[in-house]
C-alpha cells in the first residue's frame, strides 16, 4: 500500500494515507524496515480497533494516528504513557475548542460523559507505538469533539504530533510524576464509586492515581492499585 503523501513535522517523517486497515497495522509493518521515529495518519480505517480489541468506527472526518517513539533502555514500564497521550489529546481539544474534557482511566478522553478519543500502546523492541483515534466530525455515539470549530483537519493533525512529542519528552525527562497533576485535575469519577474488572472484580472509591499511573481504589479502608483493567465503570 502506497502512502498518498509524506511530510515532516517536528523533524519526524509523517506518512499520510487515504484508507488503511489501521494506522497501527501500517506503523508496525513500516517499523520492520526502519529504526527511526515516524508517524502514520489515515483519513479512514477499515479495521480500526479500540481497547480490548473492540471495533472502532473509523469513517472519514476524524483523526487516526499511530506514532512510533524510541524508548531509552532505562524505561521498562510504559503503562503511564497512555495517560500522557490523553493529556496531549486534551491539549489539542483546549487549543481548538472550549469543550470541557475529562480523562477516564486508563486511556479515554471524554466530553459530556461520552468518549471522544482512545489510546492504544504496543511495544516493539525498544520502541513504542502510540495509536490514537479522535472523534472530530463523524463521531460514534454522537460524541463529536470539534464539529463546531472552523479549524482544518490538517492543522489539527499537525498540532497533535507537536503536542504529543512535547508531552512525551516531558515524560522522558521528568517521569510521569511531572504530569500526574495535570491528569488528576480532569480525572473522571475522582472520589466516586467505580467498578474495576481485572483478574478480580472490585467496587470501591476512586481516590486517584500513583506516580506510575496506576489507578487507586479504596475499599473497606484498603487502597488497591491497578496498572491495567479489562473494564472500568464510574457510578
Automatic annotation (TrEMBL):
Domain of life: Bacteria
Pfam families, per the entry: BPL_LplA_LipB
PROSITE patterns: BPL_LPL_CATALYTIC (PS51733)
Name of this chain's protein: BirA family transcriptional regulator, biotin operon repressor / biotin---(Acetyl-CoA-carboxylase) ligase
Molecular function in Gene Ontology: biotin--[biotin carboxyl-carrier protein] ligase activity
Organism, scientific name: Candidatus Xenohaliotis californiensis
BPL/LPL catalytic domain location: 1-184
Keywords: Ligase
Annotated EC: 6.3.4.15
Enzymatic class: ligase
Amino acid at each position: 500500500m502506497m502512502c498518498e503523501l509524506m511530510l515532516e513535522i517536528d523533524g519526524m517523517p509523517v506518512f499520510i494515507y487515504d484508507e488503511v486497515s489501521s494506522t497501527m497495522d501500517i506503523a508496525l509493518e513500516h517499523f520492520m524496515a526502519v529504526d527511526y521515529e515516524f508517524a502514520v495518519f489515515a483519513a479512514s480505517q477499515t479495521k480500526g480497533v479500540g481497547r480490548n480489541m473492540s471495533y472502532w468506527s473509523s469513517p472519514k472526518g476524524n483523526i487516526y494516528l499511530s506514532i512510533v517513539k524510541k524508548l531509552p533502555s532505562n524505561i521498562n514500564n510504559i503503562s503511564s504513557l497512555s495517560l500522557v497521550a490523553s493529556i496531549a489529546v486534551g491539549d489539542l481539544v483546549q487549543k481548538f475548542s472550549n469543550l470541557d474534557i475529562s480523562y477516564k482511566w486508563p486511556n479515554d478522553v471524554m466530553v459530556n460523559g461520552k468518549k471522544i478519543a482512545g489510546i492504544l500502546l504496543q511495544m516493539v523492541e525498544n520502541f513504542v507505538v502510540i495509536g490514537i483515534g479522535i472523534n472530530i466530525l463523524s463521531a460514534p455515539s454522537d460524541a463529536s469533539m470539534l464539529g463546531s470549530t472552523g479549524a482544518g483537519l490538517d492543522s489539527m493533525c499537525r498540532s497533535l504530533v507537536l503536542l504529543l512529542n512535547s508531552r512525551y519528552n516531558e515524560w522522558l525527562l521528568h517521569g510521569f510524576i511531572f504530569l500526574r497533576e495535570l491528569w488528576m485535575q480532569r480525572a473522571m469519577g475522582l472520589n466516586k464509586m467505580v467498578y474495576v474488572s481485572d483478574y478480580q472484580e472490585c467496587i470501591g472509591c476512586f481516590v486517584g492515581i500513583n506516580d506510575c499511573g496506576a489507578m487507586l481504589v479504596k475499599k473497606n479502608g484498603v487502597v488497591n492499585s491497578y496498572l491495567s483493567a479489562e473494564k472500568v465503570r464510574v457510578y
